[in-house]
Amino acid sequence: xxxxxxxxxxxxxxxxxxxxxxxxxxxxxxxxxxxxxxxxxxxxxxxxxxxxxxxxxxxxxxxxxxxxxxxxxxxxxxxxxxxxxxxxxxxxxxxxxxxxxxxxxxxxxxxxxxxxxxxxxxxxxxxxxxxxxxxxxxxxxxxxxxxxxxxxxxxxxxxxxxxxxxxxxxxxxxxxxxxxxxxxxxxxxxxxxxxxxxxxxxxxxxxxxxxxxxxxxxxxxxxxxxxxxxxxxxxxxxxxxxxxxxxxxxxxxxxxxxxxxxxxxxxxxxxxxxxxxxxxxxxxxxxxxxxxxxxxxxxxxxxxxxxxxxxxxxxxxxxxxxxxxxxxxxxxxxxxxxxxxxxxxxxxxxxxxxxxxxxxxxxxxxxxxxxxxxxxxxxxxxxxxxxxxxxxxxxxxxxxxxxxxxxxxxxxxxxxxxxxxxxxxxxxxxxxxxxxxxxxxxxxxxxxxxxxxxxxxxxxxxxxxxxxxxxxxxxxxxxxxxxxxxxxxxxxxxxxxxxxxxxxxxxx
Length: 508
Description:
Elements: E1 13-15, H1 38-49, E2 53-57, H2 67-74, H3 76-81, E3 89-93, H4 102-121, E4 131-134, H5 140-161, E5 172-177, H6 180-184, H7 186-201, E6 208-213, H8 215-221, H9 223-244, E7 248-253, H10 268-271, E8 280-283, H11 285-289, H12 293-307, H13 317-349, H14 379-388, H15 398-407, H16 411-417, H17 421-429, H18 434-442, H19 446-462, H20 471-489, H21 494-504
Parallel strand pairs: 1-2, 1-8, 2-3, 3-4, 4-5, 5-6, 6-7, 7-8
C-alpha cells in the first residue's frame, strides 16, 4: 500500500484553514466555514484557486473524519485525472497529544488508514495521505512517538480488518516549530530524530519537510524575533540536510498581515524576498478570500515561479550568535509591554468573530501559547484585537529594540537578515491610529506610552514616517476611532470591527 515517495513532487502552495479571512469566500454566502464544507473548500483550493497542497487540520478544531471519502465521492471525475497523493496533496496536521487528548489522535490515524483503503477500492493512487504535521514540536521523542504509535495502529488495523499493510506502518513526520527558542534550537531535535530513525527503520527518510510557524513566535516574542528566528531556522535546516545527505524542503506558515508573516496578493513581490530558501508557503484564508480571485491566482503564479528552485540559506556562526542576542533584547521589550496590554487585548478578542469550528481551550493561552504567565488569545484574534484598536502589534518593542541594536552596533546585522523590515513596518503603519494611541497614553495606560516610544524610535532609527496613505487607510483609522469610542461608552462596535478587518483585507 505504501511507497517511500522518494521521487514525489514537493508542493509549493499549501492551502490552510487558518481563520483569518474578513470577507466571505467566493464559493460561499457566509464568512464562517463549517466542518461539513471542508471537502468543497479543498476542491475549490485545488481546482479554482491553484494550490497544490491542502493542510487537513485536526489541531485545535473539529474535523470531518470522512473528508477524503466525501471529496472523492463528490468530485470523482476531477480527482481521477489529478490524483491525491500523486498530483495534489492532502497533508494532515494532527493534534498534539501533549496538549490535547489522545482520542483525537487515534481518530486521525484511523481516518488516514481508512482513506487509504477507500482510494484503493476506487483504483486510485495509494496512499492519499502519507505525511503528518506535528504542531508545537519540541523534542525528537515526540516525533518518534508519533511514528511508533501510527505503526502500531496500522498493525492493529491490518489484523482486525484483514487489510493490506501501510508499508510496515511507516508515515512521514513534518515537525512544526512554533516558538523562537524551538526554531533556533531545531537542529538538535532534527539530528536526534534522524539518528534514531535510522536505527529503528534501517534507513533515513528520503527527504525532510520542516515547518516554520510565523504567528506564534511573533505572539510569544515579538515581530522582529519571529522573523529573525525564521532565518536562523532555515540555516539550521539546510545544515542538517547536508550533514545527513538528504534534501530539505522548508515550509513557512504565513498570514496576510506583517505580524503573522506578511504574505498576501498585494505585497507578495516585496514580502516574499524575506523567505528565501523556503519551498512551501501557506496560503491562508485571508489570502484566498479577501482579494479578487484573479489577483490571488497571479500572486500564486509568482510564488510558484520564485520557489520552484530554492537555494540553501547560509551565514556564519558569529552572525547566528549575534541574532540570538538581538532576539533576546527585542523579546524583553515586547514582553514587558504585552504584560500590561494583555487585559485590553483579551477583552477586545471576545468581539472578534470566529471563522471555523474551533475546540474551546482551557488554560494558559490555550496550548500554553503566550508570554510568561500572561493569558492571551490565539494569534489571529490577538492580531485582530490590536489592529482594531489602531495599534498594529508589529511596533510593540520594535522601536526600543532597534535603538538598542543601533547603540550596540547591531543594526546592520538586523537589516542584513530582515530584508523587508522597513517595508513591513510601513505597511503596518498605514493602519496605525496615533490619536487612539495618544489618548490611551494620556489616560495613563503605560503600555500605550511604551508603544508611542516604539513608534517614535522606529521613525527615528529607520528614517521613515508611519501614517495612512490611501483612502482605505484613512477610513480604517476613522473606524478604529469609532471602535474605541463606542467601547468606552458601551455601544455595540462589532460591525465596525468587521468593517476595519475588510478594509485591511484580513481579520488578524
